[in-house]
């Protein structure tokens, strides 16, 4: 069973894609917030120092008023105010300066140190005032006043610098905000593009396998099972679906193949049956023609038997022998008409036939038997030799005054036995021989010339289920040689 | 669409997105940085020392070259320099006032255009006593506790000027000196200058220093003086001006009154106009040039060495050169190269 990767299931994929889009939108939001924060920081920074310096300036003025108030009236309220404002000022400038990185830091450092110096001088002035040392307190007040002037100068300078820079910064800010706006537009466009691509990816990933499945299903509905298997690269539920679909398609295809094969086998069987029917038909024909050529063998057999009886009674031994041979020949012909026989029986039958011919023609027609076979018990179709021998005698030798020889050779060679029927008669041309062999079986109805030879050939081929078992070698004036190849059948 | 193309598009879009985000953040960051003041130096390091330079606004010595020298050393030694220029009639009080500011602001050092004045001398000692290192310009003031004096040797200027005048007048005639004097006579250095000229003229019996005139600030003063000299002292055949402004004023008088061939002029400084008159020939014979940049550099260097080594030379002379038609080409090339280098 196909296993899917649990990390790449449709649900997980959907979660990943959705999270991707959420992530992109979050990035945009964070980016926008960061930029806004920077703007805010920038605006604050532009005015932060102004506000701070303004506070310092105001406190300095108040402090100086408190100091002057105390020095002129010795008012404890003024002194108290002075102390409070002095602490406030010290607190305000406590962390105003750390390191000198630029000219403004340097000025700020000066302001801080000057405020320290101012407080020291003011404190001294207060102390001398309390001691009623007018000259001294005035001297220190003068110093503190001078320092206050320095502080005011520095505050003015710093404010001017800030103002100058802020005007430049503002121009830059406007320009940079425009650039940032354009960048943000571009970011939004890119994000839309990315989101669209992700949505496209999700839909195509889900729709593509469905599309393949539906197309394949359409093809199968039209009977085309030769479509390629659907390949799904992902390891999700679509893989399961595609695998099941492919399996179903291949199974159906395989069943259809088997049905086709069975149908073909049945057709072959029917063909075999047809062949068998034809073979029976041929046998029937053979029987018919044998009967026709032998002119009612039963009547003749009975008649011959009566002849045998009569020649015995008349003590005519040779005649009796003749009739017995004839009777044996007819018996064989009648008995073997429906079944197979051995090669030996066929040869014995021909020998009987030869005895008859000897009575009729004496030594004018002679037979030579060269039987060198150990396969004489082999089954062969009946009456395969007699038509050939009869053909040799009727068409080859009967017209010759001097007679002739019919030679029958039986020789084994490997797993076949060659049976040769050869005569020394008139012979025939190769063209005639070819005509005899190549006439179709349907032509039997139209001519009876060569009918016995073809009958023997056809029965041999049908019996052994082989072709090329029959061959005629001939030449006009040199007799005819018919060779039959009998394959050894293992039973 | 091909799967690979889709992924490639997503990749490219992601990279563009990252680039745009980075660019946006960088830009917004630069906005945030814009409110901060410019750093003192490119290295963006904080300063180790704070030095207040108290300078005479009317003195040509403290022009761009001098400030360039200060800037260079300030970066080398991480010294934040606060330049405060004084001007007006009561310069002594101005200087004292600014030195008080230096005390209250608790600076590490002061470079001051000093005058030979008891109040200033006392203030210098007070600063030194408070641990604020004082380097003097303009006046040596060896009697104070100051760390060091940095500047040109006025006696040497006198020697060079005298020599140049002798050369221009062939050692015969009478010469006048037009000297810048913004304030009352506050400087012994002026005497040193004249002493130098006198010493230089000793080798030329036919040539004598006839007249010394002091001008107030401004070009017109020099022109008036030069016109008076030309009118009232026809025997004068050589004039030496101690600053560039006066030199150019005198040039106008000489050209307008067709006196160029009668009176040889030795100027001061290396303004482009002055160098142009030397190059064209015979309008200004020569000019005494001091290296103001070197003064600025040396002043801060000596402060740093004082702070780190404690032992420093108490008197530092900066370079001096006379430019005439013989070396004007080489000097202008050198100046041009130095300018290009600084750009």
Entry summary:
Chain A has 491 residues and is an alpha+beta fold. Chain A has eleven helices and seven strands.
Write up this protein.
The complex is a heterodimer of chains A (491) and B (343). Chain A has eleven helices and seven strands. In chain A, a hairpin with a 2-residue loop joins β4 and β5. Among the domains of chain A are: 6-214, de novo design (two linked rop proteins); 363-491, Heat Shock Protein 90 (2-Layer Sandwich). Chain A has helices spanning 10-73, 76-93, 103-130, 134-221, 237-294, 297-313, 317-335, 343-361, 386-397, 430-438, 451-464; strands spanning 341-342, 365-372, 379-380, 404-413, 416-423, 470-474, 480-487. By secondary structure, chain B is an alpha/beta fold. Chain B folds into three domains: 1-37; 49-151 and 293-318, Response regulator (Rossmann fold), CATH 3.40.50.2300; 154-268, 3-Layer(aba) Sandwich (Rossmann fold), CATH 3.40.50.2300. Chain B contains eleven helices and twelve strands. Chain B has helices spanning 3-34, 64-77, 91-104, 118-129, 154-169, 189-201, 219-232, 244-256, 272-280, 292-309, 328-342; strands at residues 49-56, 79-86, 109-113, 133-137, 148-151, 173-180, 207-215, 236-241, 264-268, 286-290, 315-317, 320-324. In chain B, α3 (91-104) packs parallel to α4 (118-129) and α5 packs parallel to α6 (189-201). The radius of gyration of chain B is 26 Å and the shape is globular. The N and C termini of chain B lie far apart (56 Å).
Rg from Cα of chain B? 26 Å
Q: Which architecture of the domain at 6-214 in chain A per CATH?
A: Up-down Bundle
Following the backbone from N to C, one meets helices and strands of chain A in this order, namely HHHHHHHEHEEHEEHHEE
Count of helical regions of chain A? 11
CATH class of the domain at 6-214 in chain A: Mainly Alpha
CATH level 1 name of the largest domain in chain B: Alpha Beta
Give helix % range of chain A.
over 70%
> Which runs of chain B of at least 5 residues are low in confidence (pLDDT < 50)?
none
What is the count of distinct domains of chain B?
3
* Count, helices of chain B: 11
- Major sheet summary line of chain A: 5 strands, mixed
Shape of chain B: globular
- N-C termini distance of chain B: 56 Å
Spatial sequence of strands, sheet with the most strands of chain A: 2-4-5-7-6
What is the β-strand count of chain B?
12
The description of the largest β-sheet of chain B is: 6 strands, parallel
Spatial extent as radius of gyration of chain A? 67 Å
How much of the sequence lies in strands of chain A comes to 5-15%
CATH topology of the domain at 6-214 in chain A: de novo design (two linked rop proteins)
């Amino acid at each position: 069973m196909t296993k899917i990767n649990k990390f790449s299931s449709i649900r997980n994929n959907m979660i990943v894609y959705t999270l991707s889009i959420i992530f992109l939108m979050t990035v945009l939001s964070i980016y926008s917030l960061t930029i806004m924060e920077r703007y805010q920081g920038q605006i604050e920074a532009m005015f932060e120092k102004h506000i701070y310096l303004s506070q310092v300036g105001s406190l300095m003025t108040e402090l100086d008023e408190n100091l002057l108030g105390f020095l002129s009236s010795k008012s404890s309220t003024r002194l108290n105010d002075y102390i409070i404002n002095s602490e406030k000022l010290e607190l305000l400038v406590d962390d105003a300066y750390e390191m000198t990185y630029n000219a403004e830091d340097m000025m700020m450092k000066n302001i801080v140190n000057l405020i320290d110096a101012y407080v020291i001088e003011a404190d001294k002035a207060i102390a001398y005032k309390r001691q009623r040392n007018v000259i001294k307190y005035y001297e220190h007040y003068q110093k503190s006043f001078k320092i206050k002037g320095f502080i005011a100068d520095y505050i003015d300078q710093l404010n001017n610098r800030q103002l100058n820079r802020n005007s430049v910064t503002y121009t830059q800010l406007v320009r940079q905000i425009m650039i940032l706006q354009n960048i943000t537009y571009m970011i939004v466009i890119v994000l839309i593009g990315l989101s669209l691509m992700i949505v496209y990816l999700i839909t195509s990933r889900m729709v593509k396998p469905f599309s393949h499945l539906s197309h394949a299903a359409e093809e199968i509905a039209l009977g085309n099972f030769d479509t390629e298997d659907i390949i799904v690269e992902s390891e999700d539920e679509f893989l399961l679906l595609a695998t099941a679909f492919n399996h179903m398609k291949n199974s159906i295809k395989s069943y259809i193949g088997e049905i086709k094969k069975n149908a073909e086998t049945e057709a072959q069987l029917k063909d075999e049956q047809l062949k068998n029917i034809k073979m029976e038909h041929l046998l029937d024909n053979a029987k018919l023609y044998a009967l026709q050529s032998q002119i009612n063998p039963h009547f003749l057999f009975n008649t011959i038997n009566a002849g045998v009886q009569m020649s015995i009674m008349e003590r005519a031994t040779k005649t009796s022998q003749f009739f017995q041979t004839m009777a044996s020949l007819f018996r064989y012909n009648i008995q073997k008409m429906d079944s197979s026989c051995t090669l030996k029986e066929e040869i014995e039958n021909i020998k009987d036939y030869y005895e008859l011919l000897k009575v009729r023609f004496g030594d004018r027609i002679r037979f030579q038997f060269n039987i060198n076979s150990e396969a004489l018990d082999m089954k062969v179709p009946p009456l395969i030799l007699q038509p050939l021998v009869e053909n040799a005698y009727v068409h080859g030798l009967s017209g010759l005054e001097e007679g002739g020889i019919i030679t029958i050779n039986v020789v084994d060679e490997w797993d076949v036995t060659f049976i040769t029927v050869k005569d020394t008669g008139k012979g025939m041309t190769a063209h005639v021989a070819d005509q005899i062999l190549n006439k179709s079986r349907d032509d039997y109805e139209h001519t009876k010339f060569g009918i016995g030879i073809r009958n023997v050939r056809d029965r041999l081929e049908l019996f052994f289920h082989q072709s090329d078992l029959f061959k005629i070698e001939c030449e006009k004036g040199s007799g005819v040689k018919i060779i039959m190849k009998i394959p050894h059948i293992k039973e | 669409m091909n799967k690979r193309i889709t992924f490639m598009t997503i990749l490219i879009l992601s990279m563009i997105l990252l680039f745009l985000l980075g660019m946006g953040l960088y830009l917004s960051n630069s906005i945030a940085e814009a409110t901060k003041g410019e750093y003192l130096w490119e290295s963006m390091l904080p300063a180790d020392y704070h030095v207040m330079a108290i300078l005479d606004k009317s003195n040509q010595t403290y022009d761009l070259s001098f400030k360039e020298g200060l800037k260079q050393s300030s970066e080398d030694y991480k010294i934040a320099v606060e330049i405060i220029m004084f001007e007006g009639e009561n310069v002594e009080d101005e200087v004292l006032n600014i030195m008080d500011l230096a005390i209250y602001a608790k600076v590490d050092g002061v470079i001051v255009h000093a005058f030979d004045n008891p109040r200033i001398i006392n203030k210098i000692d007070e600063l030194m006593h408070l641990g604020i290192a004082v380097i003097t310009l303009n006046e040596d003031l060896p009697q104070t506790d100051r760390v060091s004096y940095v500047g040109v040797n006025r006696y040497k200027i006198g020697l060079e000027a005298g020599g140049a005048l002798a050369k221009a007048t062939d050692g015969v005639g009478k010469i006048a000196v037009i000297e810048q004097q913004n304030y009352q006579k506050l400087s012994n250095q002026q005497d040193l200058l004249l002493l130098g000229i006198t010493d230089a003229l000793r080798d030329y019996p036919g040539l004598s220093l006839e007249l010394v005139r002091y001008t107030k600030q401004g070009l017109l003063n020099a022109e008036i003086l030069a016109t008076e000299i030309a009118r009232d002292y026809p025997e004068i055949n050589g004039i030496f001006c101690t600053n560039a402004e006066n030199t150019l004023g005198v040039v106008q008088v000489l050209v307008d009154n067709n006196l160029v061939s009668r009176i040889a002029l030795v100027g001061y400084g290396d303004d482009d106009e002055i160098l142009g008159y030397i190059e064209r020939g015979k309008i200004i014979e020569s000019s005494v040039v001091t290296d103001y940049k070197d003064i600025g550099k040396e002043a801060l260097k000596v402060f740093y060495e004082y702070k780190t080594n404690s032992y420093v030379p108490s008197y530092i002379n900066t370079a001096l050169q006379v430019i005439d038609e013989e070396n004007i080409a080489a000097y202008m090339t050198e100046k041009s190269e130095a300018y290009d280098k600084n750009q």
